[in-house]
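pipeline/complex-builder :: batch 7 item 3
reading input block
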Amino acid sequence: MTFFFEVLINGLLMGIMYSLVALGFALIYKASDVFNMAQGAMSLLAGLALVGFLEMSFPLWLALLCTVGIMIILAYSTVFFVLKPLVNRPPLMLFMATFGIMYLLEGIGQSIWGTDAKGLNIGIPEISFEIRGILMNTFDLTFAGVAALLVASLVWFFQKTRTGRALRAVSDDHEAALSVGIPLLKAWAVTWVIAGIVATVAGVAWGSRLGVQFSLGYIAFKALPVLIIGGIDSIPGAIIAGLIVGAGETLAEVFIGPYVGGGIQTFFPYLIALLVLYFKPYGLFGKEIIERV
Amino acid sequence: MEPAPLLKVNNIEVIYEHVILVLKGVSLDVYEGQIASLLGANGAGKSTTLKAISNLVKAERGEVTKGTVEFDGKRVDRLFAPALVKMGVIQIMEGRHTFEHLTVEDDLLTGAYTRGRDKKGIKEALDRVYGYFPRLKERRSAKTGYISGGEMQMCAIGRGLMAKPRIMLLDEPSMGLAPLLVKEIFEIIVRLNKEENVGMLLAEQNAAMALEYAEYGYVMENGRVVLDGDAETLKNNADVKEFYLGLTEIGKKSYRDVKHYHRRKRWLA
């Protein structure tokens, strides 16, 4: 039984890493109805920038601040140079535009900071310890705490603040939001800034684990089943689905894997996603399309 | 001396997507606290006129290419839509456009976005809206996607009221509502006009209703104002009677009689 819990908890901790990535997608989808292909690239860029600043021997806090600064500049330029000219165009155009942003970011990131894989150490110790016989480590727990904090503040922001309410309004109806005086571009810029910060957290978390390298941009695809399960525009959905995927795939690999020859970890999340789609087409927490007849 | 109009639309032309000329020189005035109505069939340019005033036309890839719009003596046609909301020019869009996943109360509160953090003022405004629309108070925690059409229209008007409007541009408030509800909505519009001193510019296909409640009317056809006058004068105009009120001197008209095409032409020349 202890072994089961150990696997479960490690799975959940892994799941939080997925949630961090899925969160960025959900935020942008919520506000501008576009599936942002560049979300992974944003994490890569944030990771590269952070390593770059640390190599210039900036102190950690300053390096983090500069990285977030870059993400803010990126958010505003995306909104003004890419989204603004595409207002009221079909969503597919926006989607394709985010593809462009993805390649652009990968290119820019690598031409400034190079293509080598780099280690990222932000000084969080990785000390393993046991609670009631279950093995854990401080690194995973720290990120779990950061993610929990991030989600709690996002939920509070969206539900309780004036800007959050305005962003929810924008996600429902762009033109009506404009008609009540919500500046659309500003709302989008705020969303992209938040998504940029989330991408930074995800970039740091994954970068410290896997090293900052080109393939970091593709952790985004780990988030796909998470988005499907949680509902593509739901913040709590991204978190809970991340946990489900993390726990599900780890448990499946350990307990079912040996009977079928192993290696089911990679596709198991998609199986869960398929099952969820069957019963809840908008995901567990997705916004249902309200159709008036 | 006659007072200056609160809203003055001066010979505006609107072009969509750089090629489609929708308004071909529209002029109209709305005075402080007046109810004016804009009548016309589908596609006459009523909505576009309202959107040109509120500047929502830019969000639909349209552009005011000629003429001016003045509000309270200031030129506003180059402004950004939220700036106009702040000045008190509020458009209530056609088809309600409530935020369907927000609760009624949250939806109303978005209307006060431009008022910033004026918590007390916003609370007062919310209570006032609930005073006008007790039904909304009952349904305050329902998502607006699940309330009835009439309630949605109330919500949309109430949301406009949250922004401290000086003039409301109402686009087809009667659309898709039962006659009794239409009457209720129009009566509220008149009350808001009297009690809150909100000027109204009302675009309507339901001409009989609009002329009953408005003081002044403009008749639009094909992107132009073809006729304007006091509501009384318009009601008695033979063309308006025939084309918009469905009345003729000899009672109901047969559709076999195609002569009215020739008469309609007179306006377009």
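note: Strands of chain B lie at 7-16, 20-30, 35-39, 62-71, 74-75, 89-92, 167-171, 199-204, 216-221, 224-230.
queue -> next item
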